[in-house]
Amino acid sequence: MGAAVGGESEYNSDINVTPMVDVMLVLLIIFMIVTPLLQQGVSVNLPRDMVSPDEDGDIAKDTSVVIAIPDNSNFYIGTEQFPLDALGEVIKRRMEGKTPEKRIVYIKSGVDVEYGRVVQAIETIRRQDIDKIGLVADKKKGAGSGEPK
Q: For 26-63, what is each residue's pLDDT tens digit?
């Protein structure tokens, strides 16, 4: 009378890892796809700095204006490309309503970009009544970590 129907009457205490592996693989694929999309703006080969100053946290914010100059002919704000003569109007529009201490424009220039192109961008920014301009450089590897340079 006490016979179990449909299998064993004992509990199975083995861990089934197959569902966990499936979930982990799905998460891995999602992170592999999303991570490159998190990069802001255009990739620029930045020059290395000699002395590592304190990093300005405002550079990574969505509300900051970062001009990327990857080569001598292209100017980007975020991922949008603009000619040099239209750059001033775009900067002026993006700076509307900001307090004077928040009116700062950052420039990321590639290593191979001519100095004159960076100066032209700075002149365009200054014509929009913006006095604070930040030049972005890569930190040296090992700077501040005690590693030999």
A: 999 999 988 877 776 667 766 665 555 556 666 666 66
Fold topology of 57-136: Nucleotidyltransferase; domain 5 (3.30.420)
CA–CA separation, 25 and 14 (whole Å): 22
pLDDT in tens, 118-144: 899 899 888 888 888 888 876 655 544
State the pTM of this model. 0.57
Q: Provide the residue ranges of all domains of the chain, joining segments of one domain with +.
A: 57-136
